[in-house]
Specification:
This protein is mostly helical. Helices cover 83% and strands 0% of the residues.
């Protein structure tokens, strides 16, 4: 088991210097852009922040997860395809566990970490702007 974990770790680290390394920047960037769009939409529509609500609100969780998956699935699938191609070129085979780990790290994690904070920041900015406008009218 230790040898498998060492191989997985070495193979994952090797992706940063191997062929197709551009995807390690492009895919998280696309996931972040999608998360920003979704977070702004959440703020406009008065929906709660994504990750915290998905963790704590059992009733709302299925809808959030379905919506999040809809946003990020294309990036995830692209990450799976590109990592499979990378592995075929470099390792002459495909390790499914590594493919899923890489796709999860490149697509899901950036999306989940960015969407909620964008919602909160946007709400804060809109709230602060509204308070400032009310203060200007009162003066």
């Amino acid at each position: 088991m230790r040898e498998i974990l060492e191989r997985v770790w070495e193979n994952i680290i090797g992706r940063s210097t191997g062929p197709m390394k551009f995807r390690l920047l492009v895919q998280p960037t696309v996931a972040i852009i999608l998360a920003i769009r979704a977070g702004l939409a959440d703020a406009r529509q008065g929906r709660p922040a994504f990750l915290w609500t998905a963790i704590t609100d059992r009733a709302y969780r299925p809808e959030l997860l379905r919506q999040g998956w809809k946003d990020v699935r294309k990036v995830f699938v692209l990450a799976v395809v590109l990592d499979s191609i990378y592995q075929l070129v470099v390792h002459r085979g495909v390790y499914l566990g590594e493919v899923l780990i890489v796709a999860f790290v490149l697509a899901i994690i950036p999306y989940v970490l960015v969407r909620g904070p964008v919602t909160r920041i946007r709400r804060r900015l809109v709230h602060d702007h509204a308070v400032r406008d009310q203060g200007d009218r009162a003066a």
